[in-house]
# Entry
Amino acid sequence: MKGTRVLQGAACVVASTLIAAGCSSHADPAPAETISSTAQPLDYPGVCGVTCTGACGPNCTYCQHSTWSECEHVPGSSELTGIMIYHRHELCPTHQGCRDHDACLDNNYYTYGCDESNPAKQAADNGCHLACVTTYGPIYCPLWAIGQGPTDGQLAFDYDDRVSDPSRCPPPPPPPVCTPCSTTVCGPDKDCNSGQDCGTCPTGYMCTNGGCVMSTVHYCGDGTCDLGEDQNSCCTDCGCPTGQRCDANACHTYCGNGTCDPGEDCSNCASDCVCGTNETCSNGACVSSTIGYCGDGTCGAGEDCNNCPDDCGACSS
# Structure
């Protein structure tokens, strides 16, 4: 029951112009047994900060209070947010007269605003006080204003206040910050494409836009040949066919793979391009060693100083 500044005086102050001295023109309502209401409204502070609307007495003054606090958690996680939640439970005496009176005052807040010095609001509030006395008699309205008088039940209210308190509810530390790139060699769990230093992020994180971010997506270079990757698109993860190796994320043949690949010959890759029995390598080609050839040390038929100076010597000028 709110707005008690008038009713806290003599019982007949509000109705002095309508009720005879002694205030005996109304029958007192019979006291009702106090019972616990089954309704448990979650009542956050209402219009103009009013609380415990419908309870007898101003706001939650004459209610039974119980309070407790707990740290707020990140939804679905055991991590804390740095916020302390202060819970307050109010169990309040109520009566239909208190509920009617509060409903009338709340309507005035909506109509005239929260300024208690507004003459129009003051007049309207006095009308609420008068309505209580007129309906329920001059005895119980002043008693309800101070949390006394008969009740017909109890109302329960719950209020939560969220306050930043990182000292008692420490949030998780922020992820480490990346430094400028010093190397292009990255581990399988990191990303250097963004121009960050791969060496600064812990396992399971990749360096993106200056911060270490938990790796939740697959990418070429994560060490796993994932769906959508193959030897052609990501040999870094998927490898190369036999006889090739991955270089700059592309498969290439190489001297020493045991295969004489295009571009290799007995001159530039003798380990792969091996000449046969009774053959020798001459100018990148395998030729028979049983017949004369340029380079065998003999100026044979068909050779001269022009086409085989190694065997026939230099031409005289």
